[in-house]
Amino acid sequence: MRAVLMAGGSGTRLRPLTCDLPKPMVPVLNRPIAEHIIHLLKRHHITEVIATLHYLPDVMREYFHDGSDFGVQMTYAVEEDQPLGTAGCVKNVAELLDDTFLVISGDSITDFDLSAAIQFHRERQSKATLILTRVPNPLEFGVVITDKEQRIRRFLEKPSSSEIFSDTVNTGTYILEPEVLDYLPDSQESDFSKDLFPLLLEKDEPMYGYIAEGYWCDVGHLDAYRDAQYDGLMQKVSLEFAYEERSPGLWVGQNTYLDSSARITPPVMIGSNCRIGPRVQIDPGTIIGDNVTIAADADLKRPIIWNGAIIGEEVHLRACVIARGARVDRRAHVLEGAIVGPLSTIGEEAQINPDVRVWPSKKVEPGATLNLNLIWGHVAHRNLFGQRGVSGLANVDITPEFAVKLGAAFGSTLKPGMHITVSRDQRNISRMVSRSLIAGLMSVGVNVQNLEATAIPVARALVPTLSVAGGIHVRVHPERFDHILIEFFDQKGINISKAREKKIEGAYFKEDFRRAQIHEIGNVAYANQVIDIYGTSFERHLNIEAIRHSSSKVVIDYAYAVSGAVLPQLLAKFGCDAVVLNASLSLNTLTFNDREGLLNQLGHVVEALKANLGVQVSANGEQLILVDDAGSPIRGEVLTALLTDMILTHHPRGTVVVPVHASSAVEQIARRHDGRVIRTKANPTALMEACQMNPNVVLGGSGEMGFIFPQLHPGFDAMFCIAKLIEMLTIQERSLGQVRAELPRICHKLYTVRCPWTAKGALMRQLVETHAVDTLELVDGVKIFNQQHDSWVLILPDAGEPLVHIFANSSDRGWVDETLREYRMRVQEFVDREQGLAEARMEEAY
Description:
8-stranded mixed β-sheet; 30% helix; 26% strand; alpha/beta; 7-stranded mixed β-sheet
């Protein structure tokens, strides 16, 4: 049998270690990852290996040559022009694959029983067998579900945290029949998980998942790289060591000198031709490459030191990586998670702080303390984007330096000369961050239309009007008042897709930005008549006469936000009788308690003035809470149901889009009006996209997130919602109290349980496996229906916190209370059991 070793990866998330090495050639236990894979193949009698190369192909060819020194026959296929993707690179060598063959990723460490997997493939007469494994946190991998016969029924490539439905993942190792390559186009980029496997499922080709026992680590980022090293040294994975074991847990190469006063506590690996000086302290977990010098009194606690490094006297290394040929001078400290790139020098008494990365051939001056990556900016986090954009503590995580870099990363994904809008709320912190973003955009040759302080619905509406490539909006986070939230729009004003987010993250993490020449620097212009442009569209989608002749008296609390500078002008133009509260701009941030105080005040004013309704606007013009004529607030699920009823009364047979966890009152109301309900994932982008994809949608959103009127623009808009509400109340001749009284009586409750990230995937898999398929819905999380279709329980992992939300919904309050109690106990017991197992594994490891 032949094997295809996919070795073309550049390893951008392992930078700076992969600046001059392809990822498969990065050493683990002083041998390249690819060499460990070849040893694994040879153990299972696979000796014909075809390596597909793209990034720095000569490095691998010069190391392995024809493979004879390693007991295999090596053939190389280089993707000359552009990477062809995981499947495209295999299609490229199809003429060499005339029988069953194995495909294995060049960037993983594993000891799977490949022979057993091949036997399984042949017994099942499979066309494609994916070798699977179970992992605690499946977010970085393709998740797979199989049936009882282990035939693959569903998979999802790299899910978000709320999409997890299993902890069984694709390891990137496949056993294939050559005819499956006929489904792929020639000389085009294609991917196994995104292109070939979905097509095989669609064609009902036999495709199976073999769940392998053993060790597997995808060395896709720096933490995983360190874990693979330490696990190998502790023999958690079966690897061939390059050196003899001199004493239990101590592997030492040839011609290495260890001073008699050096204190070495195994497990430790020390390469060939090394010099370990007097009184050196080497702690368990330390890995030292070939030709390394460690001077007197150095203190090494679990560092990974590559070949040719020089470590000076009294140097302290803490769980860091010192790459090839680097030098760390006397009394310098390199702390946990830091990376010193190849051929770099750390001066005497300098300190490299945790997680800081030094690129190749750089020099840190003696005595310097490095808090930032040496190239530019702060430590790179694994993910920039959360569920709603990029957020972090104001002026701690989201700083001017960070924003400049983020603006440059976004701009680098666009063509030079393109135009982007930038807008913000009225606060000084948002002004500071938006200006830094503008500087980053300009530096890569992107032009900016600065909308300045603008309500976010106005900003979204203007993006398509101004014919720009997208937009950025900066505001204080609507739910975390010490945080800044930065949102990115596409050319329609919708939040950008996950794929676009990944591109921006890639540009940010690589720190390899396009630099515009002086004459190419972007321009900044200030848009004119912003409110007039928005107002024209606003007016076009309303029955102005109905509003003008309305007898409704409305009290609106703007909570000191920029929407107070927009809506009063528009309502005054329509002759609406509106009493305005707190419309002046404030630079202070309102806490939750502040808003509740203002809401209470609003209720009293509505009662005192005998107004028909009150409204509090929040989230920079996106969200609202209603107050009825009795001064009682209407929010959450009741607000969702109320708006749904009013809009479907106005537009019978219309379609309403709501998140997966919204109350089933929405379906009951839709049935009254011959309408339709679409449920989406519980995030704003999913709601916006669904509203745009379905032309019959008249309303989207929820009381929690806000409401979308897709005919106006694709975003949430509390300001238009207020005007539409006045119009509908007038035409329908109803009060809020009357509408509320006619709503279905549904009990809808929520309970939240703490759940570690590492347990979420296993929890979702357990729920899927223990319920009948016809009772499940996997739009987002796991929803389980009762015999009554409007009764259900939803277990939804939180996208940003180690939490799981349990929603129970029914017209039967007793069923809701009993079901919520049952699943709360079920989830808590599962979490406790998983934590107990994790603690036991840790004790066993120590």
